[in-house]
Amino acid sequence: MRAKEEAFRILEAALSIASTGVDEAEVSLGGGELGMTSFGLNQLGPSVDHAVEVLAIRAAKDGRMCRVQTNDLSTSGIKEAAQEARTKVDHLPAAAKGAGLPEPQSYELTEAYDPETDATRTLDRTMLASRALMAAHKGDLYASGLVAVRRGSIGLDGSPGTYAVANTRGLLAYHPATRVTYSVDMSRAGGLNGFAEDESYSISGIDPGQLVSTAVKKASLGAEAQRIGAGVYTAVLEPAAVGALLAHLGRTAGAARMHTGASFLSGREGDKIADASVTIVDDYAHPLLRGTPFDVEGVARMRVPLIEDGVAKGPVYSWESAIRYEGQATGHRDVDPFDGDVERAQHLVMTGGDATFSDLLGGVKSGVLIGRITNATLLDPKRLIITGMTSGGFFLVDQGDITVPLSNMRVTVSLLDLLANVEGMTGSAWAEGSVVPALRAQIPLT
Questions:
Q1: Host H or E run for residue 419
Q2: Position 99 confidence tier, pLDDT thresholds 50, 70, 90
Q3: Fewer CB within 10 A of the end CB, N or C, for the chain?
Q4: How many domains does the chain have?
Q5: Closest CA to 114 of 29, 205, 2
Q6: pLDDT reported for residue 193
Q7: Which residues partner with 307 through β-bridges?
Q8: Strand, helix or coil at 378?
Q9: CA triple 418-254-180, angle to 5 deg
Q10: 179 and 72 share a domain?
Q11: 414 and 272 belong to one structural domain
């Protein structure tokens, strides 16, 4: 991640080159630095420090538009990428008048950069990881997980996001950020495990001791895992399980998907689709998320209700969708490393309730506790039918008490059905990239 002045200098030079021979041009800088220390089966793995920097050029001509990326930020590298963009846009099929590029925006900035986190290096990460290893040895467990520090706009997988944008209409945007992630999975013989994870823009916002203690406690509970039969169970879902399901709601909340019938919002705006206690918004500025205040095009992000008091609201709009469908642009265009240009809600916040975790368990006469849902896959985007596997702590609950660990099972559930029948919620916390509560509902297991 480059400093603001340097980033703007590069963007200005690149825009001067990229704007030649086209109607409009946009340039953006993405990426940053990722430092990661992983550990598995009580052994420290090699620490990785990975830097990636991408300059993206988007050229528009006669309603056609294309994007080209380069890792070469020299003058010759930028010229080569700009020429490639001009050649590609000239050979695209004729198009109707496009949306064009966005005009200058006003941004509500978030404080997402922490100097102490920026200064964290390999030794610091190793010391944090060692807390999990020492606890595992003490408890006769096996610890696996990671400590990751990010600077700029880069994912845990190393994929570059966007932290600075400029275009020929005068738009100019920059946003510095840091993120730290601490993830730990404790396991023991028989495949039993306990998982805990947290993330913050600031390293002081993470409590490794509490995360390790939570994972140890889950992995140490009970004897051999038992099996239960398929059926519908009263279940308490921890925030990580709720977050894994909710992510698919965000991926289908775009205006284009809604208007083509491929969203849970399609044909349902204004309808009651969840319990009145359920409110879900996309809010990049939430203190636990602190996202970039603009999208990949530099369009200002807005707080968008998706479900409010159980009623379908939304959707989120990219610049293009706002013009096509006569809506208001909300800053929700992204570039996915696998799916290309996408329109989605990425900063989901689900309002919680006033129940304690003990309250949720106390309402279960016979049921289960689900710590996490992994490999969650969307089967039906309109009904939000999702399938995945329980993980990270799956237990039998009897008369409000967590009793024995269970062998993991498959969850296949309509998220809309689940949200329509919420029986109680705790306050919300960060989990799986969203801010969500633990909740109690009926869950089918096979």
A1: helix 415-420
A2: confident
A3: C
A4: 2
A5: 205
A6: 85
A7: 280, 312
A8: strand
A9: 75
A10: yes
A11: yes
- Residue written as token pair 């920059």: 174
In terms of pLDDT, which residue wins out, 391 or 416? 416
pLDDT tens per residue, range 322-333: 999 999 999 999
**β-pair partners for 369:** 236, 395
Q: How many helices (H) and strands (E) does the chain have?
A: 10, 22
Query: Are 332 and 183 part of one and the same domain?
Result: no
- Strand 366-380 vs strand 231-237: parallel, antiparallel, or unpaired? parallel
Distance of alpha carbon 89 from the chain centroid: 32
Q: Is the pLDDT of residue 94 over 80?
A: no
Query: H-type helices in 252-406, by residue range?
Result: 255-259, 319-324, 357-362
Asked whether residue 211 is domain-assigned, the answer is no
> Cα separation of 38 and 46, whole Å?
7
Q: What span, in angstroms and rounded, lies between the C-alpha atoms of 181 and 150?
A: 9
Q: Where is the domain boundary, 169, 188, 207? A: 188
Q: What are the structure tokens assigned to 109, written together?
A: 């900035």
Find out whether the peptide bond into 444 is cis, omega within 30 degrees of 0.
no
pLDDT at 430 over 80: yes
What's the CA gap between 22 and 27, in Å, rounded?
A: 13
Q: How confident is the model at residue 97 (pLDDT cuts 50, 70, 90)?
A: low
- Tokens representing 355 are 């129940």
Task: Report the pLDDT averaged over residues 24-45.
Answer: 96
Residue 209: inside a domain: no
The mean-pLDDT minimum among 99-103, 118-122, 151-155, 280-284 falls in 99-103
Q: Where does the pLDDT of residue 95 fall: very low under 50, low under 70, confident under 90, or very high at 90 and above?
A: low
Which of 188, 216, 251 is the last residue before a domain boundary?
A: 188
Question: How many C-beta neighbours within 10 Å does residue 35 have?
Answer: 20
Residue 263 to residue 266: CA distance in whole angstroms: 5
- Is 419 a member of any domain? yes
CA distance 391 to 237: 11
Other beta carbons within 10 Å of 76: 8
Q: Are residues 230 and 152 in the same domain?
A: no
pLDDT greater than 80 at residue 223: no
Domain span holding position 67: 4-188
Residue type, 370: I
